[in-house]
What does this fold into?
Amino acid sequence: MPDQTRARRIDLIVVSILAAFTILYASLAVPFDIPPFEDAAMLMRYTDHVANGHGMVWNIGERPVDGATDFLFVLTSAVLVFLGSPVGRAVRALGAVSHVLAVVLVYAVNRRVWHGSVLASAFSAAYLAVGTGLAYVAAYFGTPFFALAAAVTWALALWQIGQDAEERWVSIAFSLGGLVTALIRPEGAILALLMLLSIVLVRGAGNSRQTILAFALVFLVLGGAYFWWRWQYFGYPLPNPFYKKGGGFHSDSFQGSLLTVLRFGLPFVPAFIVGLRERSQRIRTAAFLLPVVGFAVCFALISDETNYGGRFQYAVLPLILMSWIPLVQRWKFSTDAAKEVASHCTIAAAVGFTLAALLYYSWSQNCHLTSFQRSCGAPYEADGRFDLGRLLSNYRGRGYVLATTEAGLLPYYSGWTAIDTWGLNDSRIAHEGDVTAAYLDQYKPHVIAFHAYFSPLVPPKLTKQNLEQDWFRMTITLKDYAEARGYVLAAAFGDSPYDTTYYYVRPDFEDSQKITNLISGMERYYWFTTGKRSINYAALERP
It folds into this structure.
């Protein structure tokens, strides 16, 4: 059997094993019985509305708003929903398939582009398989879908880097891949541009003319057409959350982003150090690092809120896993020298133990998905907002309005018209900066819900320092609005009197008393950070 045919058969077997391993790992180790994470439910609301023909809107019948920055992911998920899949199943299926494909791609690139060993290539793929990718799927995020698009684009960039002459089809495919990555998430445009700069850095501008031209044409023509359309459709050039979360340099986001990327790729740092030390490898190493570090740095432009498990930076992990092998290929193990030290069995055991330890390190990233995570097997606990949202769905279709800071689970599962008082899904609030009583009066919300760091037992301190904090000022606005208009405080659920969720109900509509009783009577409202039954501090205050 020719060596090439034998190698292909081995690769096919390994790819099948990797795919089966990933699926088995998903079925045995990933908690798919959890509800959506709070922020992921926002995407699901948009997906549901698009699938049912209402457009990319937060509230049916209102103007479009780009609160779901995962634009192409929402559209793709909506197609699956339109074809008959439930929203949750569509979102998860798209993420799971993307994750498996990314695992296979990492192996294939290392084998076909770099001619890496089966062991090193399979280890790279397995490292991705047991990382945080499936945790995002379990939480209903579209992160693996974006990561797959970035990985495909980087694979094409690496192919171009490794060739003596540019290939036209690769230049076009790379440019289209970059555009798709940008359509999934807006920061994908930055990542694609950084990849282009990596190609130019290695090949030189003269030898990259074809790729530069293809990239410019695709982004100016196709990307420009999309940008013009979205500006007309949404009314603003940038995604709505940017106007709320962006502006200026966020030092905490900058540090957190770099540390997250370092944490994801820590075992491979030595390979890049080796590459930078060798003069012949420095340019290529710098090119491999450029999209990784550059992408991490760009997150200094927005605040780090909603960054569940480092999902914003996760797309660079496949890039690292497809780039480290060529940096260390010149470092060969001497079998003769090894025999003098120990037997082959001992060496094999040492290598096996090291690889197992590194895979364990990758898996352990699942223990740091949230700041309040209590165990590696449960990224977050039972959530009363999920249960209450489903109860409020009994009043869906009656024109009721919910004003809330908790814009994920409550709006999605209730199906009510919702005001996102923080502004991620409300262009007016995002641009004006704060929710106002006049704006709330336009809706006259039937229920007001907000997450506060005070309670009826520990009233808010209206100091100048506190009122300068955007979140605190918003909660005071909501509290004052409700109390000035005679709303009934149905509940103030919390795990402590310093961390609660208030629920006010307007007293003058048909189902007011029923909804008040429903909320105040919830005996199993679980606090999302602990999974424990919450205390209703509003009930403790009553005579």
About this structure: Residues 333-342 have pLDDT under 50 and may be disordered. DSSP finds 26 helices and six strands in the chain. Strands lie at 401-404, 417-420, 447-452, 488-496, 499-505, 535-536.
